[in-house]
Amino acid sequence: MGAIISNQLARSLDLLGVVLIVPVKASEALVGLIEARIELSIEGPKAAATQTAFKRTLLLAQMPEGYKPLSRTVESAKRPRYQDVHRPLLIVMGSHDKTSPRARSEHILQK
Fold first, then answer.
1. Which domain holds residue 63?
2. CA-to-CA dists, residue 58 to 4, 14, 24, 33, 47, angstroms
3. C-alpha angle with apex 82: 76 to 85, nearest 5 degrees?
4. Could you tell me which of 88, 100, 101, 107 has the C-alpha nearest to residue 19?
5. Number of domains the chain is built from
6. Phi, psi for residue 4 in degrees, rounded to 5
7. Which of 3, 76, 101, 105 has a CA that sits 20 to 30 A from residue 92's CA?
């Protein structure tokens, strides 16, 4: 969701640059991946105990009624027009993130 919003802001405002954290491509399959990412981010192979506790707290504080509509918004969103943004771009992603594989980030950078 943040990539969609930051892309729109970068097209509309005179920003110094844009940082995308795990930019996703909208699709129906994405909703299942988002749900799977929750478990991986909490108990992934490199998750420290402090990170696990922090993420668990954040996730438990979210209400399912709010999280699901956001997932649906991402699913149905129009593809951001990255080619219209003429600002420096930094993409932050994890090597185990299935919702935004490295190839997706490379595709965005080519635009």
1. 2-110
2. 22, 32, 21, 18, 15
3. 135
4. 88
5. 1
6. -65, -45
7. 76
- The angle subtended at Cα 47 by Cα 43 and Cα 49, nearest 5°, is 90
Structure confidence by residue, pLDDT tens digits, 51-103: 778 777 877 777 777 777 777 777 777 777 888 888 898 888 877 776 677 77
82 and 102 in contact (C-beta within 8 Å)? no
**Within a 13 Å sphere around the CA of 11, how many CA atoms are in the beta-carbon half?**
11
Two tokens, residue 86 = 């003429």
Q: Give kind and range of the element (H or E) at residue 19.
A: strand 18-21
Nearest CA to 104 out of 55, 46, 33 is that of 33
| Amino acid at the residue 32 | G
The label of the residue with tokens 């399959």 reads: 29
User: Distances in Å between the alpha carbon of 86 and those of 95, 97, 101?
Assistant: 27, 27, 23
